[in-house]
Amino acid sequence: MATPRLEIHLDRITHNARQLAALCASKGIGIAAVTKGVCGSPEIGAALVQSGVQVLADSRLANLRRMREAGIAAQYMLTRSPKLSEVEQVVQFADVSLNTEMQVVRQLARHAARQGKVHGVIWMVELGDLREGLPKRAVADAAGETLSLPGVELAGIGTNLGCFSGIKPTQGKMLELSEIAVSIQERFGVKLKVVSGGNSANYEWLVSTSNVGLINQLRIGEAILLGRETLYRRPIPELYTDAFTLVAEVIECQLKPSAPDGEVALDAFGHVPHVEDRGWRWRVILALGEQDTATSAIRPRIEAEILGATSDHLVLDMADRSLAVGAEVAFDVRYEALLRAMTSPYVLKVHL
Predict the structure, then answer these.
(1) pLDDT tens string 287-314
(2) Buried-exposed string 140-153: b where 16+ CB fall within 10 A, e elsewhere
(3) DSSP state letters, 168-200
(4) Same domain assignment for residues 251 and 282
(5) Which of 194, 226, 258 is the last residue of a domain?
(6) Number of domains in the chain
(7) Helix, strand, or coil here: 211?
(8) Cα 288 to Cα 299: distance, rounded to the nearest angstrom
(9) In whole angstroms, how far apart are CA 6 and each of 3, 245, 330, 349?
(10) Would 293 disulfide with which of 165, 260, 283, 341, CB 3.0-4.6 Å?
(11) Residue ranges making up the domain that contains 297
(12) Residues forming beta bridges with residue 146, ordered by sequence position
């Protein structure tokens, strides 16, 4: 079979989704399955829906469109704040979006009214991670104006933690978001459908809390796909961590000195290489590079060390010649490697 390829075990992804959905449901929380890590794969989207997921979420409108046009029946959520230049398409392909700018919501309302739709708006609240979100003091006014606009509905509020600055979604943060939701509901006499507490980084909070407050949704991607929480990348009990296998082919295996010979300058990506002299070693080159995946985020399932990579070549160090030209090497992937491999046109995707 062609290489490089990404082997995708749909049954393991389905298992993970069901386990996490059941865990969340035990505390009154629903999940939105985030598909950006798999480039909005229709096959994976369909597997998630078959597992019982009702909301598919993605940061890229093209991914939502791909899954919707594949006929996958779900509610579609855009998780990155809409661009002004795409609001018409957002209304067309997303049922709800996470928002931070009033001028964008006004345009969503205008286009939704033209299309005869009602688009759901979730206002994101800044709680310390310093990526997207309104200041807490501005949320109520934004909610109030949203309620006055035809074409949109105030679906709820949310927050994002553990991504840009690595801020933990603690019990205090979740209760803070819940309190903001309470104040909006009391001020405007409404019931928010969604209080979206975060993402896979919320796992530690989820399993430890006895009081979820008003949190009733989590947006979960990596925990479903790779079976790990994202604060410390620890495996989650009873979940598969090997739903994806990256496979590459050996194109050279030669005994070579481990230290380069000559004056050292910058490498292909502008770095000064640091090389340890280990004497003569078997150096294995695979047809896999930075155009295919994030090579710093993969791990071989054999006794070998990754020395580095260029655009098209991955270099392994081995103590003996246990690989021949044409042999295949399997790798575990972390999230950033999965993300790039799914995006790369050079990596074959094989659904098992």
Answers:
(1) 999 999 999 999 999 999 999 999 999 9
(2) bebbeebeebebbb
(3) ---HHHHHHHHHHHHHHHHHHT---SEEE--SG
(4) yes
(5) 226
(6) 2
(7) coil
(8) 13
(9) 8, 6, 10, 5
(10) 341
(11) 244-351
(12) none
Chain centroid to Cα 32, Å, comes to 12
Task: Report yes or no: 152 and 119 within 8 Å, Cβ to Cβ.
Answer: yes
Query: In which band, very low, low, confident or very high, does the pLDDT at 278 lie, cut at 50, 70 and 90?
Result: confident
Tell me the backbone φ, ψ of residue 146, rounded to 5 degrees: -60, -40
Give yes or no: residues 51 and 179 share one domain.
yes
Q: What is the DSSP string of 225-276?
A: HHSB-SSS-PBPTT--S-SEEEEEEEEEEEEEESS--S-----TTS------
237, part of any domain: no
Strand (E) or helix (H) holding 329: strand 328-333
CA proximity to 57, closest of 23, 17, 95, 28: 95
Distance CA 135, CA 296 (A): 36
Q: At what angle do helices 171-188 and 136-148 cross, to 10 degrees?
A: 40
Same domain, 120 and 16: yes
Residue 21 in tokens: 């959905």
117 is annotated as an active-site residue: no
pTM beyond 0.85: yes
- Tokens 């496979």 locate to 247
Encoded amino acid at 269, one letter: F
Residue matched to tokens 């392909």: 93
The phi, psi pair for 323, rounded to 5°, reads -125, 140
Residue 30: give its domain's CATH number: 3.20.20.10
